[in-house]
Records
---
Amino acid sequence: MGSVVSFTILGLFTGAAYAIAASGLVLTYTTTRVFNIAHGALGMVMSFVFWDFSQRQGMPVWLALVLVLGVVAPATGWAIQRFVTRGLGDGPVSVALVVTVGLLVGCIGLATQVWPPATRVLPPFFNGSGFQVASTYVTAHQLITVLLAGVVALLLYLLLTKTQIGTAMRASVDNPELLRLFGGKPDRVAGMAWAIGTSLAALGGILLTPVIGLSYYDLTLLVINAYAAAMLGRLRSLPLTLAGAMGLGILQSFAVAYLPSDGLLSGIRSAMPALFLFAVIVLTPQAQLRIGQVKGVVSAPLPSRAKQLGAGAGLLTLVALLATSLPDDALLLVGTAATYAMVMLSLVLLTGYGGHVSLAQFTFAGVGALVYAKLGEPTLSGLVVAALVAAAVGAIVAVPVLRLTGLYLALSTLAFGLLMDKMIFQAEFAFGTNNSLQAERLSILGTSFSSLGGYVLIMTVFLVLMALVLLALRRGALGRLLIAMRDSPAACGTLGLDTRWFRVGLFALSAGMAGFAGGLFAGMRGTIGASDFQVLSSLPLLLLAVVFGVTSVTGAVLGGVGLTLLPVLQSSNPAFAGLIFAVVGFGAVALGRDPNGLANRLFTLGRTLRPRLPAARRTADVPEPDEVTEEVPAHVAS
Amino acid sequence: MSLLEVDDVVVRFGGVTAVDHASFAAEQGRVTGLIGPNGAGKTTCFDVISGLRRPTTGRVGFDGRDVTAISVHRRARRGMGRTFQRLEAFGSLSVADNVRAAVDIHRGLTGIAVPWRRSRTAQVGALLDRVGLSAYAADRADAIPTGIARLLELARCLAADPALLLLDEPSSGLNESETEAFGRLLRDLAAEGKGILMVEHDMDLVMSVCDEIHVLDFGSVIASGTPSHIRDNPAVQRAYLGQADTGQVA
Amino acid sequence: MVVPMLEVVGLHAAYGRIEVLRGVDLAVPKGAVVALLGPNGAGKSTLIKCISGLHTPTSGDLHLAGVHVQDAGADELARLGLCTIPEGRAVFPNLTVEENLRLISYAGVAADAVIDVAFSYFPRLRERRSQLAGTLSGGEQQMLAMSRALASDPALLLLDELSMGLAPLIVDELYETVAGIAASGVSILCIEQFADTALRVADYVAVMSGGRVVATGEPAEIRDSMVDVILGGAA
């Protein structure tokens, strides 16, 4: 009996910390309609700052707390709203997602740079004191956390209902345009909301740190817990968010207490937030197709067929040359780049053409790799099965969120990636824990490509084929439908397209492409493990895809090379490893608003330079003239 | 039995009753007008008919079946086409590709998998020609004038050869001669046997092409009848002109 | 020559690449009520959006009381004495009546004074002061919206389709308030689809069509041709 009480108290404590963080998330999302994926990451950075102030510099705890919560965090939040996320709420969800993912990665990079990995301890408040309640010992830190959650809830209530700025915040949720007509300043309101929201993220992080440790990733992933709690209130209602946070905390605590600590169920403990989230999403009612002014998007131009084939042949020749001349460790990098480029092609389809964001594309690659290795059939059909299973898994992720809109789909992929990380990939029946699942090299029609050079060349062949198929799809009916769906789902629906299943199909196709790449990757490496497919590596993948251009094949290939070189660059400059990560993250923040990315700038440069080169002609770049263009007077037929 | 039957439909959202026990019908081979002041609930009715919004209570019957609980795309596949008051053209695609996408959707998976490009191109050309958009075929849909974009939405609908066309303010943005030609097109479509239900503010057009008119005010049908009947109905004039002495107008 | 309260010269505006206003010229003299009529899609609401600072015109000039205000934001203009009541329900539905009124004080009037004025004009609002604005009837919501025009003593009042979706009796009541505001010397520009209602309170009428002002004049001059525009062949 006593244990139930003590685990409830433990659950209330974590729940209270989640509640604090989650209310900050709700506040920023409702007032600016920008979902801050970096919410947890900001809490993480602020916890490090707090550690730095209170432990390293030896400030009194109260002073450090006041400085972090009252100055550093609000200033950071305000600055982010002012310079990073302003105006994102009116644009496509995918852009806001990419920018805040950039912020997340940038925060992790910044933290690793400023506070390189080391053992750091942040003691709980009033360490050692506590008191006995019946048979349970409650620490002062736990009590303070629960009390603070109450205080935060009360203060937020007072702020939102009793003050002018709080009333303006709620008015801004209803109708920011009208608020401006009232003479209010939605921007100031938004800055205020982000300042408070970041402070709450900081407080949540600081309270949890003594329990979960000062870690770059665990605190960053706090956003999933906060999001899961906030989903109960549909990201709007603060009371429901508090209830969700408390419920989640208690569920998690009971999972730790009563579920077996080994076997499949052991993973549930850490995957509880993700499971909770899926449960809430499945119970959320259907969203209506949105009708609104349609804005066209200018995409990167499609290359002509001759150009596609030429570029493919060029790439193959290059890799063939490299295959005969490079040592094995460098060849592994080339193969890795090809893998990454293929995974990025799957993002070109999903994000670049379709406008949806996946935050767990590597997880699908991992599913492909896992199936390929477990199947033990290193043939083309084995590879195809691996891709099909990954596609099916992708569909399964998309189905629960069928009824919801883009943001939820993207966040569900993050939760799903986490779920796979914690529950499946590390399990004995999957990769196991020691990174040593064996996979054989592929053989096609009896020809085995056992040499690394040959295998890398084959990977490149698949990359080129995948790119050509993708471009053919884009140019054909499917490509048109993708654009049509992105521009106006409502019109597609009324024209007879089943928009929900179309989205599932798109997601499955994209996951299948990633799975295919994963299978090839497993064959190249020979041994693979869960660490190759961590969900958090999917975030730099998405960022580099966007930075290099997620709307074009060129962008994907460049991005693949970039993503491969990133760890190389980091290990050769260990002192700047974090900085490099931060540059990628903040680079995406800067470039995330233009999904055509660097690749498109290259194209533009190419177009401006070409007329000056005598032999070349411009015709290759013009989209294929397959439209009907007869000149007929613009009158209604009679 | 009518092609479309809206039966006692009520739509409430956020305490506001947008449609209040509305009942009306549209017949095959006829042009039916749905008119009324701004905010009378016309577009909401269209959303309910096309399936974008579930009614709070009431029933929508189409082609002899109850479609109230059926999804948007299934209604479209059963022969309902609609255009939007606030345009929903695919802005990033060319005008021709807008129609081509509609043709693809209508042909379904087999149409996508077996692309006989030539026959599709011919069909797209014919559709554009029919609404008079051939000259705009290569323009991006976000760069054409509003009136033209409305015609484009109509061409898109026609790709599926629907039995019922729901047109939400189709003529706004067209000039006088274009509107006249558009009226002829509507009569032609009706003569081919299509049912047309049209929300429209251009009363000249409504009075000249509609066979029957329903007048919506505060979400309820306050009058139904032929154009001449509606024109002389004092309740209609009150709804349109406010509570002024309508004697001067009639 | 007295400087008009509002002067619009050669105003062009577009959504994306689609031009909606094609050179609008319009003036609202000091203390006058100008009704802006015209068919749907003529660009009336876009014009109001441009004047109120919510939409940036592509070219042309806007003068408020003789001052060139082209680049001012909507919130700045509001604090300078421009009161805009936009189309639809111009209230915050999830705020109480009283909170809606308190927000009016952003325009520079003390909150208590605002509430006093509002409740003295519309006693019904007092009964519902702690009710959410979204649960009010359409007419009550418009009264709440009009309270802003009454309490903030604006230099220029912009009204967009005040009567939309309201019963004629309530429309009359609202327009009595408009007439009262006009009598206190406030210049008003109002878009109205109920031609007769608007013509009764207006000093001048401007008719828009195809993104331009195609006719201006006094109500009596415009009245005959207007019926055509509104009810078409029904007249």
---
Amino acid sequence: MLSSATKKPKLAVWKFASCDGCQLSLLDCEDELLAIAGALTIAKFPEASRAFARGPYDLSLVEGSITTPDDVERIKRIRQQSKLLVTIGACATAGGIQALRNFQDVNEYIRLVYAHPEYITTLDRSTPIADHVKVDFELRGCPISKTQLLEVITAFLNGRRPRLSNYSVCEECKLRGTVCLAVAEDVNCLGPVTQAGCGALCPAYRRGCFGCFGPRENLNLPSLVAWWQSELGLKPAQVELALRTMNAWSPPFKEASENL
Amino acid sequence: MEALPLDEKINDLKVVLKVEDFQQLLDALIRRDYQVVGPTLKEGAVVYDSLTRVSQLPAGWTDEQQAGHYSLKKRSDQAYFGYGVGPQSWKKFLFPPRITLWKQKSPGEAPEPAELPQDAPRYAFLGVRACELKAITLQDQVFLTGPFIDPIYQARREKVFIVAVNCGQAGANCFCASVGSGPQVTQGYDLALTEVTAAPEAYFLVEVGSQAGQTLLNEVTHRPATGKEVAEARQVVERAASEMSKSLATADLKDFLYTNYENPYWAEVAGRCLACANCTLVCPTCFCTSPEDVSDLTGQVTEHRRRWDSCFSLDFSYLHGGSVRPSRQSRYRQWLTHKLGTWQDQFGEIGCVGCGRCITWCPVGIDLTTEIRALRQAAATLTAGTETNPKSDER
């Protein structure tokens, strides 16, 4: 607990290649927003305010992946000004959906998409923040969970480590009493290999887990993929489609999708 | 429910409850302020949920279970209990998946327990199978014996009214007969039903297991059973027993597991195991939890919570400096060795009731009965190899 005499810590929110969904989770903390604003000086958060205070910052939340030469330099400057740097979301922690370019030739994409390809300066790969600077904590999700973001901020304010789960989405399904789709409906659900945090949202609405929170610890993708192919009859192209989404570039998903 | 000493008269009492009078049983329970919970269809499976009408039961449905597969099918009759156990067990009521143990509104104040015994829900379980009754008695040992009694479990358990049901068929993953927990319910119930559907008129044969059961039955229309009806009901359970194809040889399991920590076959299972924890969470006897301390942004309001956890998660075995069981191999070995081996040292018997849930609900169909056999085979092969290897004696 920070006493009122203590200077309030400064929070900054930074954006790289991303959709803004994760930083909007901060605004989604409607009930807690006043408490957050009371405990922290929001020094930079363009989604909420034009006000901008200079660094250094006590806590930087970084959204998005590194996709341009300018990004590579900017993230280094942010790191230098940040005591703690926490990445938020699948883009910042794994490269995001835009990392699908990593499996292809980016110049071909540029040629197909843009009328004037010569205006585009981009890297051939979309990469996570941790590939470029030291990251103190990675908050998973596409988007991140508001509850988990609050826990990270609360832990920061109270000087403790965030208490976040690294078990499977299956545990969350069981805790909320959702019937397993993989078993009851033969759905190729990524729950067993995906880190918890979403509260097992999709299975509760009878959709298999899409893997938004990325690979869990000690996952066994080869076994799950073998089951999908032998028991559920999935073709390699279907497995690839399931593995190449928001966390396509995370090493275990990448490796499994390249070994089909 | 405390097992009451029964006089012979009650224990021998067998009566017939007609299907059309079945609703009276629920009505009587509800009149006594019980929250009736029992099987109903949800999300493509038979789950346990609140019931007020017998029409909410999955009448006319059955299930087909294989390792890693579960599906519902229509039956040719309208049996109310013509299916096996589903993905959930009664432990979710007695041992809630998540519960706040206490709250503290500010650092100076005394913590308030979140659930006082008098506020515990008063459940009536409708449709408890023999293996599940056994599972409840195993969890009774965990939570109600020894120096530390779990007050949340205790308060719920003492209030519960149990209507058991004898199984009339065995699922493909059932092996209760081999571990001695079913399919016939023998004790620990207030009322036990056997559903007879083949007769010209479907009926339940009801056995009374407690004074509470006797009192409740008096409010429900029934008549004494004939010898023929008792025999028909017996055949129903005998059929379930004879249908059971799976088995687990338990005799020397503890010694076998204690001498097979280094069995090479553990690595083979670990190659398939996802360490997803599904087996432990569907298991009606698994009782592991993790505590969670949470605070609000100011650090003033704190809560101490408890949630189901599993030996398959990394953090579950976290001690200072790291986790004791980082590999999937060590976690699978821990689970199986505890369930079938060290559980015996802790509680005097194995922790498995043969319900088959861990087999059906494993997303990659790992079957512990098969794995135990494979482990034994691997051990036998090793021993044979050692015996024929003359050098082994020299070491």
